């Protein structure tokens, strides 16, 4: 059995953006690993690149992940109705 190879597909500023993109990619069935500089994570710093989070995916999914990220940055997800089932959940 071969070891999984991880490939860098993006780098973003901060945990919130990284987690959003992780969720988007994982929803497409793409395995994701987030990597952040230790000091930035420990101290919550976003200065001089210490708050950067690397988004890595299994090499088997690199092309698919790059396509999903391109669609995201091109704004193709902005008009999606995220209300599951189409019902108004505002009580």
Write the layout of secondary structure elements.
Blueprint: E1 6-13, H1 15-27, E2 32-36, H2 38-43, E3 52-58, H3 62-73
Antiparallel strand pairs: 1-3, 2-3
Give a short summary of the structure.
With 91 residues, the chain is of the alpha+beta class. The chain has helices spanning 15-27, 38-43, 62-73, and strands spanning 6-13, 32-36, 52-58.
Q: How many separate domains make up the residues?
A: 1
CATH architecture level-2 label: 2-Layer Sandwich
CATH topology: Alpha-Beta Plaits
Q: What oligomeric state do these chains adopt?
A: single chain
Distance between the termini: 51 Å
The outline comes out as globular
The largest sheet has its strands arranged as: 1-3-2
Look at the helices and sheets and give the structural class: alpha+beta
Cα gyration radius (Å): 16 Å
E-strand count: 3
Count of helices?
3
Strand content: 15-25%
Poorly predicted runs: none
CATH class annotation: Alpha Beta
């Amino acid at each position: 059995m071969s070891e999984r190879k991880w490939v860098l597909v993006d780098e973003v500023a901060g945990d919130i953006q990284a987690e959003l993109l992780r969720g988007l990619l994982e929803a497409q069935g793409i395995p994701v690993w987030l990597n952040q500089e230790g000091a930035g994570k420990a101290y919550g710093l976003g200065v001089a690149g210490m708050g950067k989070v690397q988004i890595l995916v299994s090499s088997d999914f690199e092309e698919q992940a790059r396509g999903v990220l391109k669609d995201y940055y091109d704004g193709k997800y902005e008009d999606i109705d995220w209300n599951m089932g189409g019902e108004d959940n505002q009580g």
